[in-house]
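Notebook B, p. 112. Complex prediction, attempt 2.
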Amino acid sequence: MIGLEHFLILSGTLFCIGLFGALAKRNAIAILMGLELMLNAVNINLVAFARYVTTGILTGHVFAIFVIAVAAAEVAVGLALIVAIYRDRISVNVDDFDWLKW
Amino acid sequence: MDLSLLTIEIATVLLAIGVLVIGLLIPREQRFGLGYLVTIGLAIILFVSFGYYGINATAFEGMYYVDDFSIFFKQLILVAAVLVTLAATLYVKKMGTNYGEFFVMTVFAALGMMVLSSAGEFITLYLGLETMTISFYILTGFKKNDSKSAEAGIKYLILGAMSSGILLYGLSLVYGMTGTTVISEVAVKLAEMGSLSPAMVVGMVFLVAGFGFKISAVPFQMWSPDVYEGAPTPVTAFLAVGSKAAAFAALIRVFMIAFPDYSLQWKMLFAALAALTIIIGNLVAIPQTNIKRMLAYSSIAQAGYIMTGVIAANAAGVRGVAFYGMLYVFATIGAFTVVMNFSANTGSDEIRDYAGLARRSPLLAAVLTVCLLSMAGIPPLAGFAGKFYLFSSIVDQGYLWLVIIGLLMSMASVYYYLSVAKVMYMADPVDDSPIVVPAGAKAVLLITMIVTVFLGVYPQPLSVLANLAANSLFF
């Protein structure tokens, strides 16, 4: 029987993978994907809690929908900035983003 | 449900959308009045907001607070936005395209901060936070022809989104353990449960980390020097005061209302962070040669001082935070207005280029000196009164060691603040040409200097408002 703890383990694992990706990847696009994984881990948490802890109350679902919408806005801005940098330096590698001290 | 409670927010949205539409309708060369339109609109909203003191109500069934605390922070944000938009006109004009959009995004960022300071519930809090930060990502990368700006933008976005993710994970755990997202109900549910579950502890630690990033507390400060240096200077000024103040408002509400029973635990955590922040912020500021980086580290140190008021976790501490936050607005925006007008004229942000500024523009030199000395806490300037309120709130709670660190480091900070003054007054200018300051920026400079001196001599009016704000939080 799959219970709450299975979902929490899944989301915890996903969060760690996302955090690792965001910290270890050198490609800016891959970093954005890592960030998305972190947010999706949060969504799994929220929906699982809404199902098992507050059954019948939809707060968790609503929260997850808001997170998805905001994440889309964030990525749109992120991609725009990456395109702006790419035009300048023909690179999306964060090691090349060294005009400021990191 | 009374929608008139939301007048301030609704007016701000209308202003932003109105300016956006007007900016698209009128021809490009006539758009330069839009900055003043935004300033006047925000000033009217600020004036109206004084009528909201003493209401102390909640809207949307406890999701949204309209109490004196939130009104105080909204006024702080509006003051900052008015001063920044008034000071920025020349700088934004020199930046080139998209003149109107710059001011629209500034108003949207201010809106996000207002929602953040009023949020009584996690979803609202998250939305306010993201409205603010996404607007700031755009504003940071606003200089299209300067790739430093885009680079600062992407760095801010990556680290900001990471911290949002961590904050959200914390919020989701708190929601899961208590079954509610309303801040005041979290406290009730926690009291019923009696003890903290491990997941709850993880959730609280994640919240500290997430908020620590937004207020740029050490060790979550690494983004701020880069972003402050790369961003257009008006944005840096607004980022340094507005986003920090709004994050402090949300942090105070979450920790003091949702977790009052466990204040001993989170106080320890914040005390350690505050000590680190004060020490590292001040020490790293000393060797900086770029004035924006120096001000970035100094603003990190200021966040450390403000955190002492959070550690007090009582009305006196919150009063200190509110009072210091407001005068920090004037000191910081004054200093950054000098920086933006200097760089609009000379194209430089290096401290050595400030040599002989007192002869090229006595006003700029005087304002920068007053603002920096206020941040250092030299009496009779306002910063002294602010630090007095903050430190006196934790002295009798067993945090004397933190006060001593704060005082020692304030003394150390006088060194790097005064070395800027020394360059401006003692050194000879390389280039004697006077610096042109437009009328709007001149007004901002005078306002910030007069308010900083006035509040130091006579802090009464502001401390009455700060008291109202603090008392409304603790009833």
